[in-house]
Amino acid sequence: MNRNRLMTLGLTGAALTALCCFTPILVGLLGLLGLGAVTGYLDYVLLPALAAFLGLALYSLSRRNRDDVSGCCSHHSAKEHGKPEG
Predict the structure, then answer these.
(1) Where does the record place Basic and acidic residues bias (predicted)?
(2) d(CA 31, CA 23)
């Protein structure tokens, strides 16, 4: 999976989880479906999911930064620094 896809997945998942966690959207939907008894357990699912999606986004960001740093110096050859190749 490439970096942009990981970042998109992490941020989209975090946004949807935060929306369900901090607003009564999911509670209302579960109530309409007759699953109101499940709402007491939502925190046990939504908060770890939010942490996992944010962790995925941070992991993708750290990989992007690491790849950018390693890529910035790869165009310098050994001859430019006066070192023999080999």
Answers:
(1) 77-86
(2) 14
Closest CA to 3 of 59, 55, 45, 74: 59
How does pLDDT run across 26-79, given as a tens digit for each residue? 889 999 999 999 988 988 999 999 999 999 999 998 888 777 766 665 555 445
pLDDT for residue 71: 60
Average the pLDDT over each of 3-7, 47-51, 66-70, 81-85 and give the range with the smallest value: 81-85
Q: Can you tell me the distance from the alpha carbon of 44 to that of 85, in angstroms, rounded to the nearest whole number?
A: 57
- The number of residues making up the chain comes to 86
CA distance 16 to 8: 12
Report the distance separating Cα 72 and Cα 83, nearest Å: 19
